[in-house]
Amino acid sequence: MAVSERRGLGRWSPAEWGQRLLLLLLLGGCSGRIHRLVLTGEKRADIQLNSFGFYANGSLEVDLRLLRLDLQETDEKAPLVGFSLSRVRSGGIRSYSTRDYHDCPLQRNSSSFLVLFLIDTKGLQVQVRKYGEQKKLFISPGLLPEETSKPALPKPEPTVTPEVDSGTSTVNKAKAKLAVSQDPNGKDKELVLGLSHLNNSYNFSFHVVIGSRAEEGQYNLNFHNCYNSMPGRERPFDITVMIREKNPDGFLSAAEIPLFKLYLIMSACFLAAGVFWVSVLCRNTYNVFKIHWLMAALAFTKSISLLFHSINYYFINSQGHPIEGLAVVHYITHLLKGALLFITIALIGSGWAFIKYILSDKEKKVFGVVIPLQVLANVAYIVIESREEGASDYGLWKEILFLVDLICCGAILFPVVWSIRHLQDASDTDGKVAVNLAKLKLFRHYYVMVICYVYFTRIIAILLRVAVPFQWQWLYQLLVEGSTLAFFVLTGYKFQPAGDNPYLQLPQEDEEDVQMEQV
Hints:
Elements: E1 2-3, H1 14-27, E2 34-42, E3 46-54, E4 59-68, E5 81-88, E6 115-120, E7 125-130, E8 137-141, E9 178-182, E10 188-194, E11 196-198, E12 201-210, E13 217-225, E14 237-246, H2 259-283, H3 290-319, H4 324-350, H5 361-386, H6 394-411, H7 413-429, H8 433-467, H9 475-494, H10 508-518
Parallel strand pairs: 1-2
Antiparallel strand pairs: 2-14, 3-13, 4-12, 4-14, 5-6, 5-13, 6-7, 7-10, 8-12, 9-10, 11-12
Transmembrane segments: 262-281, 293-315, 335-359, 366-384, 396-418, 446-468, 474-493
Membrane topology: Multi-pass membrane protein
Domain GOST seven transmembrane: 258-502
Protein backbone atom coordinates (compact mmCIF):
# COMPACT_ATOMS: atom_id res chain seq x y z
CA MET A 1 0.00 0.00 0.00
CA ALA A 2 1.18 3.46 -0.74
CA VAL A 3 -0.33 6.28 1.27
CA SER A 4 0.82 9.77 0.43
CA GLU A 5 2.35 11.68 3.33
CA ARG A 6 1.54 15.37 3.59
CA ARG A 7 4.18 15.93 6.23
CA GLY A 8 7.56 17.35 5.16
CA LEU A 9 10.43 14.89 4.97
CA GLY A 10 12.70 17.24 6.86
CA ARG A 11 10.42 17.20 9.91
CA TRP A 12 10.95 13.53 10.69
CA SER A 13 13.07 12.82 13.75
CA PRO A 14 15.78 10.11 13.66
CA ALA A 15 13.47 7.82 15.65
CA GLU A 16 10.68 8.30 13.11
CA TRP A 17 13.11 7.56 10.27
CA GLY A 18 14.05 4.31 11.99
CA GLN A 19 10.44 3.37 12.56
CA ARG A 20 9.52 4.03 8.93
CA LEU A 21 12.48 2.00 7.63
CA LEU A 22 11.61 -0.88 9.96
CA LEU A 23 7.99 -0.72 8.80
CA LEU A 24 9.05 -0.87 5.17
CA LEU A 25 11.25 -3.88 5.88
CA LEU A 26 8.45 -5.67 7.69
CA LEU A 27 6.04 -4.93 4.85
CA GLY A 28 8.38 -6.82 2.58
CA GLY A 29 8.40 -4.35 -0.29
CA CYS A 30 5.74 -3.42 -2.76
CA SER A 31 2.72 -5.62 -3.26
CA GLY A 32 4.11 -6.97 -6.49
CA ARG A 33 1.81 -6.53 -9.47
CA ILE A 34 -1.35 -6.17 -7.42
CA HIS A 35 -1.30 -2.51 -6.44
CA ARG A 36 -3.39 -0.51 -4.04
CA LEU A 37 -2.80 3.23 -4.01
CA VAL A 38 -4.37 5.50 -1.39
CA LEU A 39 -3.86 9.25 -1.70
CA THR A 40 -5.48 11.81 0.58
CA GLY A 41 -5.38 15.56 0.17
CA GLU A 42 -3.63 15.13 -3.19
CA LYS A 43 -3.05 18.25 -5.30
CA ARG A 44 -1.15 16.95 -8.31
CA ALA A 45 -2.75 17.36 -11.71
CA ASP A 46 -1.10 14.26 -13.23
CA ILE A 47 -0.32 11.03 -11.38
CA GLN A 48 1.72 8.29 -13.05
CA LEU A 49 0.07 5.17 -11.67
CA ASN A 50 2.09 2.38 -13.24
CA SER A 51 3.86 1.02 -16.30
CA PHE A 52 3.63 -2.61 -17.41
CA GLY A 53 4.66 -4.64 -20.44
CA PHE A 54 1.81 -6.78 -21.78
CA TYR A 55 1.92 -9.80 -24.05
CA ALA A 56 -1.10 -11.07 -25.98
CA ASN A 57 -3.91 -12.26 -23.63
CA GLY A 58 -2.55 -10.07 -20.85
CA SER A 59 -5.04 -8.12 -18.76
CA LEU A 60 -5.22 -4.84 -16.87
CA GLU A 61 -7.84 -4.40 -14.14
CA VAL A 62 -8.59 -1.02 -12.57
CA ASP A 63 -10.94 -0.61 -9.63
CA LEU A 64 -11.49 3.01 -8.64
CA ARG A 65 -12.90 2.37 -5.19
CA LEU A 66 -13.07 5.97 -4.00
CA LEU A 67 -12.77 9.33 -5.71
CA ARG A 68 -13.72 12.35 -3.63
CA LEU A 69 -13.43 15.67 -5.46
CA ASP A 70 -13.79 19.19 -4.12
CA LEU A 71 -15.56 20.51 -7.19
CA GLN A 72 -17.39 23.78 -7.50
CA GLU A 73 -19.95 24.79 -10.07
CA THR A 74 -18.14 25.45 -13.35
CA ASP A 75 -19.06 26.11 -16.95
CA GLU A 76 -16.84 23.30 -18.17
CA LYS A 77 -18.78 21.02 -20.49
CA ALA A 78 -16.05 18.43 -21.10
CA PRO A 79 -14.89 16.21 -18.21
CA LEU A 80 -11.61 17.31 -16.63
CA VAL A 81 -10.97 14.21 -14.53
CA GLY A 82 -10.11 10.73 -15.74
CA PHE A 83 -7.56 8.08 -16.69
CA SER A 84 -5.34 7.80 -19.73
CA LEU A 85 -3.82 4.64 -21.17
CA SER A 86 -0.89 4.95 -23.56
CA ARG A 87 1.46 2.49 -25.21
CA VAL A 88 5.13 2.60 -26.17
CA ARG A 89 7.20 0.02 -28.00
CA SER A 90 10.38 0.70 -26.01
CA GLY A 91 11.35 2.11 -22.64
CA GLY A 92 10.88 5.83 -22.26
CA ILE A 93 10.77 8.67 -19.77
CA ARG A 94 7.27 9.72 -18.81
CA SER A 95 6.86 13.27 -17.66
CA TYR A 96 4.21 15.96 -17.65
CA SER A 97 6.39 18.60 -16.04
CA THR A 98 7.09 20.40 -19.34
CA ARG A 99 3.51 20.74 -20.64
CA ASP A 100 1.55 23.97 -20.59
CA TYR A 101 -0.38 24.48 -17.37
CA HIS A 102 -3.46 25.45 -19.40
CA ASP A 103 -3.23 22.27 -21.49
CA CYS A 104 -5.37 19.43 -20.19
CA PRO A 105 -4.34 15.99 -21.54
CA LEU A 106 -7.98 14.89 -21.41
CA GLN A 107 -9.14 17.63 -23.79
CA ARG A 108 -6.77 17.13 -26.70
CA ASN A 109 -6.61 14.55 -29.43
CA SER A 110 -3.09 13.21 -29.06
CA SER A 111 -1.43 10.28 -30.75
CA SER A 112 0.40 9.59 -27.49
CA PHE A 113 -2.82 8.35 -25.89
CA LEU A 114 -4.45 5.05 -26.73
CA VAL A 115 -7.57 5.28 -24.58
CA LEU A 116 -9.07 8.01 -22.39
CA PHE A 117 -11.51 7.31 -19.55
CA LEU A 118 -13.34 10.61 -18.95
CA ILE A 119 -15.22 10.79 -15.64
CA ASP A 120 -18.42 12.81 -16.04
CA THR A 121 -19.58 13.54 -12.49
CA LYS A 122 -22.66 15.41 -13.67
CA GLY A 123 -23.97 12.68 -15.93
CA LEU A 124 -22.67 9.89 -13.67
CA GLN A 125 -20.92 8.11 -16.51
CA VAL A 126 -17.43 7.39 -17.81
CA GLN A 127 -16.80 8.10 -21.46
CA VAL A 128 -14.26 5.78 -23.08
CA ARG A 129 -12.56 7.28 -26.10
CA LYS A 130 -10.24 5.26 -28.31
CA TYR A 131 -7.63 6.78 -30.60
CA GLY A 132 -6.26 4.93 -33.60
CA GLU A 133 -7.00 1.37 -34.58
CA GLN A 134 -7.24 -1.09 -31.69
CA LYS A 135 -9.25 -3.94 -33.09
CA LYS A 136 -8.06 -6.41 -30.46
CA LEU A 137 -7.92 -4.14 -27.42
CA PHE A 138 -11.02 -5.15 -25.47
CA ILE A 139 -12.42 -2.85 -22.77
CA SER A 140 -15.22 -4.08 -20.51
CA PRO A 141 -16.83 -2.93 -17.26
CA GLY A 142 -16.11 -4.60 -13.94
CA LEU A 143 -13.22 -6.87 -12.95
CA LEU A 144 -12.25 -10.27 -14.25
CA PRO A 145 -13.54 -13.25 -12.23
CA GLU A 146 -11.01 -14.54 -9.69
CA GLU A 147 -11.29 -18.13 -10.89
CA THR A 148 -10.30 -17.41 -14.48
CA SER A 149 -6.75 -18.51 -15.14
CA LYS A 150 -6.56 -16.74 -18.48
CA PRO A 151 -8.47 -13.58 -19.40
CA ALA A 152 -11.21 -14.04 -21.93
CA LEU A 153 -11.50 -11.95 -25.02
CA PRO A 154 -14.87 -10.25 -24.55
CA LYS A 155 -16.81 -8.67 -27.37
CA PRO A 156 -18.94 -5.85 -25.97
CA GLU A 157 -22.59 -6.05 -26.87
CA PRO A 158 -24.64 -2.90 -27.43
CA THR A 159 -26.81 -2.13 -24.44
CA VAL A 160 -28.91 0.77 -23.34
CA THR A 161 -27.64 2.83 -20.44
CA PRO A 162 -30.33 3.00 -17.74
CA GLU A 163 -31.55 6.35 -16.53
CA VAL A 164 -29.88 7.69 -13.42
CA ASP A 165 -32.02 8.37 -10.37
CA SER A 166 -31.76 11.84 -8.87
CA GLY A 167 -30.53 12.40 -5.34
CA THR A 168 -27.33 13.18 -3.45
CA SER A 169 -26.63 9.56 -2.55
CA THR A 170 -27.70 7.65 -5.64
CA VAL A 171 -26.02 4.54 -6.89
CA ASN A 172 -25.86 4.26 -10.63
CA LYS A 173 -27.15 0.83 -11.50
CA ALA A 174 -25.33 1.05 -14.79
CA LYS A 175 -22.05 0.29 -13.00
CA ALA A 176 -21.89 -3.15 -14.57
CA LYS A 177 -23.35 -2.06 -17.91
CA LEU A 178 -21.62 -0.87 -21.04
CA ALA A 179 -23.12 1.35 -23.71
CA VAL A 180 -21.59 1.15 -27.18
CA SER A 181 -22.40 3.51 -30.00
CA GLN A 182 -21.36 2.40 -33.47
CA ASP A 183 -20.84 4.08 -36.81
CA PRO A 184 -22.43 2.71 -40.04
CA ASN A 185 -19.38 0.53 -40.65
CA GLY A 186 -19.92 -1.28 -37.39
CA LYS A 187 -16.81 0.03 -35.64
CA ASP A 188 -16.92 1.10 -32.01
CA LYS A 189 -17.21 4.88 -31.83
CA GLU A 190 -17.56 5.56 -28.11
CA LEU A 191 -18.05 3.42 -25.02
CA VAL A 192 -19.85 4.56 -21.88
CA LEU A 193 -19.29 2.99 -18.46
CA GLY A 194 -21.54 3.51 -15.46
CA LEU A 195 -20.32 5.66 -12.54
CA SER A 196 -21.57 5.08 -9.00
CA HIS A 197 -22.09 7.99 -6.60
CA LEU A 198 -22.38 7.27 -2.91
CA ASN A 199 -21.57 9.37 0.19
CA ASN A 200 -20.02 12.18 -1.85
CA SER A 201 -17.60 9.81 -3.60
CA TYR A 202 -17.47 8.14 -6.99
CA ASN A 203 -16.39 4.66 -8.02
CA PHE A 204 -16.28 2.41 -11.05
CA SER A 205 -14.17 -0.40 -12.43
CA PHE A 206 -13.07 -1.74 -15.80
CA HIS A 207 -10.65 -4.20 -17.32
CA VAL A 208 -8.64 -4.25 -20.52
CA VAL A 209 -7.58 -7.41 -22.37
CA ILE A 210 -4.73 -7.43 -24.89
CA GLY A 211 -6.33 -9.52 -27.64
CA SER A 212 -3.50 -10.00 -30.13
CA ARG A 213 0.24 -9.61 -30.67
CA ALA A 214 -0.41 -6.39 -32.57
CA GLU A 215 -1.56 -4.79 -29.31
CA GLU A 216 1.47 -5.88 -27.26
CA GLY A 217 3.64 -3.18 -25.72
CA GLN A 218 4.55 -1.16 -22.65
CA TYR A 219 1.34 0.38 -21.32
CA ASN A 220 1.33 3.45 -19.09
CA LEU A 221 -1.69 4.21 -16.91
CA ASN A 222 -2.09 7.74 -15.55
CA PHE A 223 -4.71 9.69 -13.62
CA HIS A 224 -5.47 13.32 -14.48
CA ASN A 225 -7.25 16.03 -12.54
CA CYS A 226 -7.09 19.07 -14.79
CA TYR A 227 -8.77 21.24 -12.18
CA ASN A 228 -5.35 21.32 -10.49
CA SER A 229 -3.44 22.38 -13.61
CA MET A 230 -3.23 26.02 -12.55
CA PRO A 231 -0.63 26.70 -9.82
CA GLY A 232 -2.13 28.22 -6.70
CA ARG A 233 -5.65 27.06 -7.55
CA GLU A 234 -5.30 23.38 -6.67
CA ARG A 235 -8.27 21.56 -5.18
CA PRO A 236 -7.34 18.66 -2.85
CA PHE A 237 -8.91 15.33 -3.68
CA ASP A 238 -8.87 11.78 -2.29
CA ILE A 239 -8.44 8.68 -4.38
CA THR A 240 -8.23 4.95 -3.70
CA VAL A 241 -7.50 2.72 -6.67
CA MET A 242 -6.64 -0.96 -7.04
CA ILE A 243 -4.68 -2.05 -10.11
CA ARG A 244 -3.90 -5.60 -11.14
CA GLU A 245 -1.78 -6.46 -14.16
CA LYS A 246 -1.22 -9.95 -15.46
CA ASN A 247 0.39 -11.70 -18.40
CA PRO A 248 -0.60 -15.19 -19.54
CA ASP A 249 2.26 -16.78 -17.57
CA GLY A 250 2.03 -14.74 -14.38
CA PHE A 251 2.03 -11.31 -12.77
CA LEU A 252 5.42 -10.15 -14.05
CA SER A 253 5.80 -7.53 -16.75
CA ALA A 254 7.20 -8.66 -20.09
CA ALA A 255 10.66 -7.28 -19.27
CA GLU A 256 10.68 -8.93 -15.83
CA ILE A 257 9.79 -12.47 -16.84
CA PRO A 258 13.43 -13.49 -17.57
CA LEU A 259 14.76 -11.89 -14.36
CA PHE A 260 14.04 -14.91 -12.16
CA LYS A 261 16.40 -17.09 -14.21
CA LEU A 262 18.86 -14.26 -14.83
CA TYR A 263 19.35 -13.47 -11.14
CA LEU A 264 19.53 -17.16 -10.28
CA ILE A 265 22.29 -17.75 -12.86
CA MET A 266 24.21 -14.64 -11.80
CA SER A 267 23.91 -15.70 -8.15
CA ALA A 268 25.56 -19.02 -9.05
CA CYS A 269 28.30 -17.16 -10.96
CA PHE A 270 29.13 -14.89 -8.01
CA LEU A 271 29.05 -17.91 -5.67
CA ALA A 272 31.49 -19.77 -7.91
CA ALA A 273 33.72 -16.69 -8.09
CA GLY A 274 33.67 -16.40 -4.30
CA VAL A 275 34.54 -20.08 -3.78
CA PHE A 276 37.39 -19.84 -6.31
CA TRP A 277 38.68 -16.68 -4.60
CA VAL A 278 38.70 -18.37 -1.20
CA SER A 279 40.62 -21.32 -2.67
CA VAL A 280 43.21 -18.87 -4.02
CA LEU A 281 43.53 -17.26 -0.60
CA CYS A 282 43.99 -20.61 1.07
CA ARG A 283 46.81 -21.53 -1.31
CA ASN A 284 48.69 -18.24 -0.73
CA THR A 285 48.24 -17.59 2.97
CA TYR A 286 51.56 -15.75 3.30
CA ASN A 287 50.53 -12.89 0.98
CA VAL A 288 46.89 -12.63 2.11
CA PHE A 289 45.66 -9.38 3.69
CA LYS A 290 42.45 -8.58 5.47
CA ILE A 291 41.07 -6.82 2.44
CA HIS A 292 41.31 -10.09 0.49
CA TRP A 293 38.80 -11.65 2.89
CA LEU A 294 36.68 -8.51 2.58
CA MET A 295 36.57 -9.11 -1.18
CA ALA A 296 35.46 -12.70 -0.55
CA ALA A 297 32.69 -11.49 1.78
CA LEU A 298 31.53 -9.08 -0.93
CA ALA A 299 31.25 -11.87 -3.53
CA PHE A 300 29.22 -14.11 -1.20
CA THR A 301 26.97 -11.24 -0.10
CA LYS A 302 26.30 -10.34 -3.72
CA SER A 303 25.42 -13.96 -4.47
CA ILE A 304 22.98 -14.18 -1.56
CA SER A 305 21.37 -10.85 -2.50
CA LEU A 306 20.79 -12.02 -6.08
CA LEU A 307 19.44 -15.36 -4.85
CA PHE A 308 16.74 -13.75 -2.73
CA HIS A 309 16.03 -11.23 -5.48
CA SER A 310 15.38 -14.16 -7.80
CA ILE A 311 13.12 -15.84 -5.24
CA ASN A 312 11.16 -12.59 -4.84
CA TYR A 313 10.46 -12.47 -8.56
CA TYR A 314 9.35 -16.09 -8.52
CA PHE A 315 6.69 -15.43 -5.88
CA ILE A 316 5.64 -12.15 -7.49
CA ASN A 317 5.07 -13.99 -10.76
CA SER A 318 3.04 -16.76 -9.15
CA GLN A 319 1.17 -14.85 -6.42
CA GLY A 320 1.33 -11.19 -7.42
CA HIS A 321 3.34 -10.23 -4.32
CA PRO A 322 6.60 -11.30 -2.62
CA ILE A 323 6.92 -13.28 0.61
CA GLU A 324 7.53 -10.75 3.38
CA GLY A 325 10.28 -12.64 5.21
CA LEU A 326 12.26 -13.33 2.03
CA ALA A 327 11.89 -9.71 0.93
CA VAL A 328 13.32 -8.54 4.27
CA VAL A 329 16.37 -10.81 3.82
CA HIS A 330 16.83 -9.47 0.29
CA TYR A 331 16.79 -5.86 1.51
CA ILE A 332 19.27 -6.61 4.29
CA THR A 333 21.71 -8.39 1.97
CA HIS A 334 21.26 -5.65 -0.63
CA LEU A 335 22.16 -3.03 1.98
CA LEU A 336 25.23 -4.98 3.10
CA LYS A 337 26.30 -5.59 -0.50
CA GLY A 338 26.08 -1.90 -1.40
CA ALA A 339 28.10 -0.84 1.63
CA LEU A 340 30.74 -3.55 1.13
CA LEU A 341 31.10 -2.74 -2.58
CA PHE A 342 31.96 0.92 -2.16
CA ILE A 343 34.07 0.35 0.96
CA THR A 344 36.10 -2.33 -0.80
CA ILE A 345 36.62 -0.21 -3.93
CA ALA A 346 37.68 2.78 -1.83
CA LEU A 347 40.06 0.69 0.31
CA ILE A 348 41.71 -0.87 -2.74
CA GLY A 349 41.96 2.51 -4.41
CA SER A 350 43.60 4.02 -1.35
CA GLY A 351 46.22 1.27 -1.36
CA TRP A 352 45.33 0.20 2.17
CA ALA A 353 47.26 -2.94 3.17
CA PHE A 354 48.95 -2.98 -0.23
CA ILE A 355 51.17 0.11 -0.25
CA LYS A 356 50.37 1.42 3.23
CA TYR A 357 48.71 0.35 6.45
CA ILE A 358 47.30 3.66 7.62
CA LEU A 359 44.65 5.78 5.89
CA SER A 360 45.30 9.48 5.55
CA ASP A 361 42.93 12.11 6.92
CA LYS A 362 41.61 12.83 3.42
CA GLU A 363 40.84 9.16 2.84
CA LYS A 364 39.12 8.88 6.21
CA LYS A 365 36.90 11.81 5.20
CA VAL A 366 35.98 10.01 1.99
CA PHE A 367 34.85 6.99 3.99
CA GLY A 368 32.98 9.31 6.33
CA VAL A 369 31.02 10.54 3.31
CA VAL A 370 30.61 7.33 1.29
CA ILE A 371 29.33 5.09 4.09
CA PRO A 372 26.43 7.37 5.21
CA LEU A 373 25.54 8.07 1.58
CA GLN A 374 25.42 4.37 0.85
CA VAL A 375 23.07 3.87 3.79
CA LEU A 376 20.88 6.68 2.40
CA ALA A 377 20.99 5.14 -1.09
CA ASN A 378 19.86 1.78 0.24
CA VAL A 379 17.09 3.40 2.26
CA ALA A 380 15.95 5.13 -0.93
CA TYR A 381 16.03 1.79 -2.76
CA ILE A 382 13.90 0.14 -0.07
CA VAL A 383 11.42 3.03 -0.10
CA ILE A 384 11.12 2.87 -3.90
CA GLU A 385 10.55 -0.88 -3.80
CA SER A 386 7.96 -0.45 -1.04
CA ARG A 387 6.02 2.46 -2.54
CA GLU A 388 3.57 2.56 -5.37
CA GLU A 389 4.63 4.53 -8.43
CA GLY A 390 1.77 6.97 -7.94
CA ALA A 391 2.75 7.88 -4.36
CA SER A 392 3.53 11.56 -3.89
CA ASP A 393 7.11 10.98 -2.70
CA TYR A 394 8.01 8.22 -5.17
CA GLY A 395 9.68 10.58 -7.63
CA LEU A 396 11.61 12.31 -4.85
CA TRP A 397 13.11 9.06 -3.61
CA LYS A 398 14.08 8.05 -7.15
CA GLU A 399 15.94 11.34 -7.57
CA ILE A 400 17.63 10.87 -4.19
CA LEU A 401 18.77 7.38 -5.15
CA PHE A 402 20.15 8.51 -8.52
CA LEU A 403 21.94 11.55 -7.08
CA VAL A 404 23.44 9.76 -4.06
CA ASP A 405 24.60 6.87 -6.22
CA LEU A 406 26.42 9.26 -8.58
CA ILE A 407 28.05 11.06 -5.63
CA CYS A 408 29.30 7.75 -4.24
CA CYS A 409 30.67 6.73 -7.64
CA GLY A 410 32.56 10.01 -7.86
CA ALA A 411 33.82 9.89 -4.27
CA ILE A 412 35.45 6.46 -4.60
CA LEU A 413 37.64 7.77 -7.43
CA PHE A 414 39.45 10.25 -5.17
CA PRO A 415 41.48 7.62 -3.23
CA VAL A 416 42.62 6.09 -6.53
CA VAL A 417 43.76 9.48 -7.85
CA TRP A 418 45.56 10.26 -4.58
CA SER A 419 47.35 6.90 -4.68
CA ILE A 420 48.49 7.55 -8.26
CA ARG A 421 49.88 10.93 -7.25
CA HIS A 422 51.56 9.41 -4.19
CA LEU A 423 53.27 6.77 -6.32
CA GLN A 424 54.33 9.37 -8.89
CA ASP A 425 56.00 11.45 -6.19
CA ALA A 426 57.56 8.40 -4.50
CA SER A 427 59.12 7.13 -7.74
CA ASP A 428 61.25 10.29 -7.95
CA THR A 429 62.33 10.53 -4.31
CA ASP A 430 62.83 7.17 -2.60
CA GLY A 431 64.97 5.44 -5.22
CA LYS A 432 62.60 2.50 -5.77
CA VAL A 433 61.67 3.62 -9.27
CA ALA A 434 60.99 0.21 -10.83
CA VAL A 435 58.67 -1.05 -8.09
CA ASN A 436 56.78 2.22 -7.81
CA LEU A 437 56.35 2.52 -11.57
CA ALA A 438 54.90 -1.02 -11.68
CA LYS A 439 52.48 -0.14 -8.92
CA LEU A 440 51.66 3.13 -10.66
CA LYS A 441 50.84 1.33 -13.91
CA LEU A 442 48.50 -1.11 -12.17
CA PHE A 443 46.80 1.65 -10.21
CA ARG A 444 46.13 3.47 -13.45
CA HIS A 445 44.63 0.26 -14.81
CA TYR A 446 42.43 0.01 -11.73
CA TYR A 447 41.34 3.63 -12.19
CA VAL A 448 40.25 2.83 -15.75
CA MET A 449 38.44 -0.28 -14.48
CA VAL A 450 36.45 1.74 -11.96
CA ILE A 451 35.57 4.37 -14.58
CA CYS A 452 34.39 1.68 -17.01
CA TYR A 453 32.37 -0.07 -14.28
CA VAL A 454 30.59 3.15 -13.34
CA TYR A 455 30.09 4.09 -17.00
CA PHE A 456 28.58 0.75 -18.03
CA THR A 457 26.34 0.25 -14.98
CA ARG A 458 25.08 3.84 -14.73
CA ILE A 459 25.18 5.41 -18.19
CA ILE A 460 25.23 2.74 -20.90
CA ALA A 461 22.74 0.57 -19.00
CA ILE A 462 20.23 3.44 -18.73
CA LEU A 463 20.57 4.28 -22.44
CA LEU A 464 20.07 0.61 -23.28
CA ARG A 465 16.92 0.48 -21.19
CA VAL A 466 15.45 3.45 -23.05
CA ALA A 467 16.43 2.25 -26.53
CA VAL A 468 15.49 -1.45 -26.62
CA PRO A 469 11.93 -2.78 -27.17
CA PHE A 470 9.78 -3.29 -24.11
CA GLN A 471 10.23 -7.07 -23.94
CA TRP A 472 14.04 -6.76 -24.09
CA GLN A 473 14.49 -4.26 -21.27
CA TRP A 474 15.82 -7.06 -19.06
CA LEU A 475 19.07 -6.59 -21.00
CA TYR A 476 19.57 -3.59 -18.68
CA GLN A 477 19.86 -5.91 -15.68
CA LEU A 478 22.00 -8.33 -17.68
CA LEU A 479 24.47 -5.56 -18.54
CA VAL A 480 24.60 -4.33 -14.93
CA GLU A 481 25.16 -7.77 -13.41
CA GLY A 482 27.54 -8.87 -16.17
CA SER A 483 29.61 -5.70 -15.79
CA THR A 484 29.70 -6.17 -12.02
CA LEU A 485 30.88 -9.77 -12.36
CA ALA A 486 33.58 -8.75 -14.86
CA PHE A 487 34.72 -5.96 -12.52
CA PHE A 488 34.93 -8.38 -9.59
CA VAL A 489 36.94 -10.91 -11.63
CA LEU A 490 39.37 -8.31 -12.99
CA THR A 491 39.86 -6.76 -9.55
CA GLY A 492 40.59 -10.17 -8.06
CA TYR A 493 43.07 -10.90 -10.87
CA LYS A 494 44.88 -7.59 -10.32
CA PHE A 495 45.03 -8.02 -6.55
CA GLN A 496 45.51 -11.76 -6.24
CA PRO A 497 47.83 -12.73 -3.37
CA ALA A 498 50.92 -13.74 -5.40
CA GLY A 499 54.54 -13.14 -4.53
CA ASP A 500 55.29 -11.39 -7.84
CA ASN A 501 52.32 -9.04 -7.66
CA PRO A 502 53.66 -5.45 -7.63
CA TYR A 503 50.71 -4.40 -5.48
CA LEU A 504 51.91 -6.65 -2.67
CA GLN A 505 55.60 -5.78 -2.83
CA LEU A 506 55.84 -3.65 0.28
CA PRO A 507 59.55 -3.23 1.11
CA GLN A 508 60.75 -4.54 4.43
CA GLU A 509 62.00 -1.14 5.62
CA ASP A 510 58.55 0.34 4.95
CA GLU A 511 57.01 -2.37 7.11
CA GLU A 512 59.44 -1.53 9.94
CA ASP A 513 58.64 2.18 9.63
CA VAL A 514 54.94 1.48 9.82
CA GLN A 515 55.39 -0.74 12.87
CA MET A 516 57.43 1.97 14.62
CA GLU A 517 54.76 4.56 13.84
CA GLN A 518 52.07 2.31 15.29
CA VAL A 519 54.17 1.79 18.44
